[in-house]
User: Fold these one by one.
Assistant:
Number 1:
Amino acid sequence: MAKKSALGKGLGDLDPNNAEDVKRLSAAIEELETDFSKLKDNASSFKDPISAQQLATNIEKAKQKVAEYGETYSAIKSRPDLVKELNELQKRAEDLSTKTDLKKFNADFEQFNTKVKQAGLHTKSLGDKLKDAFKNFAQYELTLLDWVDEHKGYRKYVAIAGKCWPAFQTQFGFVPCYVNSRLTGRGIPVSCEVDIYGALSEFIGTCVSEDAVTLLDINNSVPKDMYKESIEGKFDYTHKDTFMGFHCGNTCSKKLASCEMKNQMIMARSLPVEVTNGTLEGDIAPGDITFYRLQSTSDNKLRAYVAQGEVLPVATRSFGSIGVFAIHEMGRFYRHVLIEKNYPHHGAVAFGHYGKALFEVFKYIGVPMEDINYNQPASLPYPTENPFA
């Protein structure tokens, strides 16, 4: 109210020789400048789509941090005052919407966390437990690199089809996703689940783009409410044009909008959490992409597909290495190419539009022209597509 009353007076009504008037006006101006700075800071987040996605991702992390607190700091249940404070933080987390709100929330959460530690109720967090696993990660990475050096012979380049799901974690006590992402970022593509043609596809994309690539599941849909809220009317895509590109945590860190080390949530439903550590999780950075794959049939015939699109600046609100992908006419392409031609659920991703080069590569290595498929426009039906549908 002081701010309003001080500035509500005309400047002519203020006495420049009155110390109280000058003090009140200076304080009101300073407060308005601070408020304006906050508004400007928050507005910039929504003007820039990448900043908006980053803000949405950070808000989701804040919510998750509070939601998981009871699991990683279970002893808190013996202190009703701390439980009450945690419940209040959980309610506030649901209403976060601006950078200012988030900054204040994170500061209050850290104060709460300090109280828990001072009370002697702190137990190992997920981050602490992950630190214990880094020795295993380093040992595994060095072993793979040594194996490559000993077996590549005269070959200059290498790609790896690694075994992970479902046996790796029970044998070695961690998951290899983070190490796989590091090697892929160094130009040694690593596919998941012993996907040999996936590794070959990644290698081709690495050569064409001269950049890191990734391998993702292509069979996850975007929830209808997410499409309505974050995509419809904002981007030129139908719901059927969109899908979630997902994998446990194998994408190179420089291709993620932000990332953190976590554990494989699906495996942890039936295994001890500590043996599922090692995923690099985060939303994939928005931008142009090419989804593609080289594959062979059971009777030894090569086929391939190429489709250009983009990763949208939309927060996924999920886990793993994941992004909201959009490719025009994806629904038809998925039905008449990916399913009809028995492609596996893994697709390689190059970060940029490289369809022209990849198409020529597939021609060069002998894929028949009729078996190099792409996302055909609605005006060009697929051979098995009903033109009257």
Number 2:
Amino acid sequence: MCGIGGIIFLKFNELGLEEDLLKAIKRSGFEEATPIQKATIPLVLAGIDVIGQAQTGTGKTAAFGLPILQHVDVKEEHIQAIVVSPTRELAIQTQEELYRLGKDKRAKVQVVYGGADIRRQIKLLKHVPQILVGTPGRLLDHINRKTVDLSHVKTLVLDEADEMLDMGFLEQLSKTFRKKDRRCFFPQRCQRQSAQSAKNSCMNRKLSISRQKSLRPIWSISISSKRANMKNSIS
């Protein structure tokens, strides 16, 4: 057991997750959270902005997806969270996993991406989801067409933000989604100096979860295969 800032990192059934989510986790065959999940889930549940850095296959989708699903109000037919993915394949995969984890809660999750009929997507978006996953270009297209309403979005995830920097979308997305009271999570595989200003424009508080020292962290958490080493490194 370990803690940071009064928040304790525990197993899935001790992380404060709703029973509907725990049922979905158990049905998926997971019992113990990975280091990135143990470290981030309590923080995102608490409304803290997070920069999460870990390798592919370490469970980053569940790390941000479970807190998003917990925060979603299924009685409200508004888009409450947006997940931006760099590729069509990742967007589809993320939507499928969030749908599976949110099935017992009856959360609506939709995906939009380029290369598909936008008219069909517009029609489907009339059945407003609580969570919208999409590629950056297609999401911006829908925003410009006003076929999605951002006014109720409380959580933004830029998945593999370093990849979106390469694609030239990160700064535009951070400006589009900038809002003072919006929770932000930036899962990525590496830390980039040129991405920091775009992140800072969207985040209220900065927390870095990484395998190496971050540039300007509030907390630096080094994720290893066995444990998370944490230290306060305010700069």
